Amino acid sequence: VKAAVFASGTGSNFDAIIGRSNLACEIVVLICDKPGAPVIEKAISSGIQTLVLNPKAFVSKQEYETKILHFLRKMDVEWIFLAGYMRLIGPTLLAAYEDRIINTHPSLLPAFPGKDAISQAIQAGVKVTGVTIHFVDEGMDTGPIIAQRALEVLEDDTEATLKVRIQDVEHELYPEVINRLVRG
Ligand code: GRF
Questions:
Q1: Which residues, judged by CB distance below 6 Å to any ligand atom, belong to the binding site of ligand 1?
Q2: To the nearest 10°, the Cα dihedral for 98, 102, 108, 113?
Q3: Which residue has a Cα nearest atom 4 of ligand 1?
């Protein structure tokens, strides 16, 4: 089973997915919307094909996603895993990959959707936060929840220290959920 990862930034989740020893699918391509993003180097050095597109070079989101879709189809991609992809998925990809697009988010949704979920949690003073893996729909971090793992916010946590622990959880949980989904 072939799958694609979509990412815009650092790519620590990308690394966790491709580094998982018994991953139930093969990551055949990285789709990146940010030329120069560190995740691109990670894919190249792992020998994974990369498609880097600047969405601004397209007249519409539909054209941008149609280009991606052709590429995914050519590569027989069946699943899409978002890993820090900082863009809403549009109707073109949603229709083509119904219930096959998954995302990881660094909070216990529906709390703290969108950007800066970790600093939002710190600001709000919550004592528990966590990680959510969910199906992607047209909204921002709104799709049906597949799995969650909670984590305590410590008295002296900063955004940086909390982020480390949240990402450790993500790196373990996301590949685990991917395996469960792909194996049905
Ligand atoms: C992750 O924390 C993910 O939950 C969020 O964006 C971050 C991406 O980090 N959607 P990385 O690029 O995988 O290191």
A1: 7, 9-14, 83-84, 104-106, 167, 170
A2: -70
A3: 105
Residue-level pLDDT at 44: 97
Place of tokens 């909070």: 107
Q: What is the pTM of this model?
A: 0.97
CB neighbours of 70 closer than 8 A, spacing ≥ 6? none
| Cα of 74 from ligand 1 centre, angstroms | 27
Give ipTM to 2 decimals.
0.97
Q: Catalytic residue at 105? A: yes
Active-site annotation holder among 70, 105, 134, 171? 105
- The β-bridge relationship of strands 26-32 and 145-152 is unpaired
- For residue 63, the number of C-alpha atoms closer than 13 Å in the C-beta half-sphere is 8
What gap in Å lies between CA 171 and CA 38, rounded to an integer?
Answer: 17
- Listing DSSP states for 99-152 in one string gives T-EEEEESS-TTSS-STTHHHHHHHHT-SEEEEEEEE--SSSS-SPEEEEEEEE
- Name the 3-class secondary structure at 6: strand
* Domains of the chain from N-terminus onward: 2-182 (3.40.50.170)
